[in-house]
Design goal:
By secondary structure, the protein is mainly α. Helices cover about 70% and strands about 0% of the residues. The protein has helices at about 1-15, 25-30, 35-65, 75-95, 95-105, 115-125, 130-160, 170-185. Helix 1 runs parallel beside helix 7, helix 3 (about 35-65) runs parallel beside helix 6 (about 115-125) and helix 4 crosses helix 5 (about 95-105). The longest helix has about 30 residues, at about 130-160. The two termini are about 15 Å apart. About 35% of the residues are buried.
Length: about 190
């Protein structure tokens, strides 16, 4: 039980996929201007990553590895993730059209989000069993969501502040993201 708790803490704080491993920065900067959009993206990434983690692990263990097709890992994993994202996109378009519109281009970008693919690779490279894969596939996007929501809260406040012209919009976003990253590096001592 202690190993699972350590894995959760590691995935969320110590090895945060977004702020420590620098994977998934495009949707991080693109969907963090409004809290509603950030929460929607976080939920979408959590759903896709849990399903992708499970699907890619099963594909790896029962198809690719037994048949010696390890070299197809990247291609097959991207196809699995793309299929899952299509389901999320169809669901949001039908049931939550406002969120679907707010996420815009960033929703289909989950397909090529390196954070999603990266977690699937980490699950395989670390040789996690099914339980650890599920925990990792839930905890990493939870850390992604935590960082995204915290960042959205700060960016909403920045929009109300007087920011010097050269630092407006993306520049101040990158500087703030760097400060968040430095704050999360403080958790490295927990590993």
């Amino acid at each position: 039980m202690g190993d699972y708790f350590a894995l959760i803490v590691s995935c969320i704080f110590v090895n945060n996929i977004l702020l420590i491993q620098y994977l998934g920065n495009c949707p991080f900067l693109g969907t963090s201007k409004k809290m509603e959009t950030a929460i929607g993206m976080a939920m979408g990434v959590i759903f896709v990553l849990v399903m992708a983690g499970l699907s890619t692990w099963l594909t790896w263990v029962f198809i690719l590895k037994p048949f010696g097709l390890e070299f197809l890992r990247t291609l097959v994993f991207i196809l699995v993730i793309a299929t899952l994202v299509q389901f999320v996109e169809m669901f949001l378009k039908k049931n939550m059209p406002t969120l679907y519109t707010a996420l815009g281009i960033y929703l289909p970008l989950i397909t090529t989000n390196c954070a999603v693919l990266g977690v699937c690779f980490i699950n395989i490279d670390e040789d996690y069993n099914l339980v650890k894969t599920l925990i990792s596939s839930l905890a990493y996007p939870a850390g992604f969501g935590l960082a995204l929501i915290l960042f959205a809260g700060v960016r909403e406040r920045i929009l109300l502040a007087r920011v010097p012209k050269p630092l407006q919009d993306t520049s101040i976003g990158l500087l703030t993201a760097g400060m968040f990253s430095l704050a999360f590096f403080g958790f490295k001592g927990m590993a």
